[in-house]
Amino acid sequence: MIDRKTLARFIDNAAARADIVDAEPASPKQCWFLAGLIVKADDEEQAREFVLNTSLVLTRRRASLMIGNYLEG
Question: Average pLDDT of the chain?
């Protein structure tokens, strides 16, 4: 499994692409928190998605929904 710091960088990159679709990007705090939740859940599939999908866009809203899903599960 990828470490939190490395995964957070990939998630930050996905957030930076939100400008392309004229949406509000996920905040750095959301990216860091989400990376921690993904690592803690040992969700390799989701981590791989952030690493390999270079067109993935992470908006503030999507990040919030993903965080909520990890906290509920």
Answer: 97
Taking the whole predicted model, whether its pTM rises above 0.90 is answered as yes
Residue range of the domain that includes 40: 4-72
For every residue of 11-53, which 3-state class applies, written as one string?
HHHHHHHHHHHCCCECCHHHHHHHHHHHHHCCCHHHHHHHHHC
CA 14 to chain centroid: 7
> What is the domain count for the chain?
1
